[in-house]
Amino acid sequence: MAHIEADNTSELQAIQRQARIGGHVQRAQVMLVAAGMTAFAIVAVAAVMMATLL
Fold it and tell me: How many angstroms separate the Cα of 42 from the Cα of each of 27, 32, 39, 47, 54?
């Protein structure tokens, strides 16, 4: 991590807070995509099983 000298530490803290929030948002988006892919796979397997039974 780079050493940044700042006279106003509140600005630096605000930047760090925004970066942390952005990281949480990105992780939530990745988890949402993973859940969507899992749901699609479950539906696809169920469709194949139903087609096999018919």
Answer: 23, 15, 5, 9, 19
Q: Whole-structure pTM over 0.85, yes or no?
A: no
What does the alpha-carbon distance between residue 45 and residue 14 come to, in Å, rounded to a whole number? Answer: 47
Give per-10-residue mean pLDDT for the chain (54 aa).
66 87 90 98 97 90
How many domains are contained in the chain?
1
By residue range, what is the domain housing residue 39? 8-54
Sequence-ordered list of residues with C-beta below 8 angstroms from that of 54, at least 6 positions apart, any chain:
none
- Domain contains 36: yes
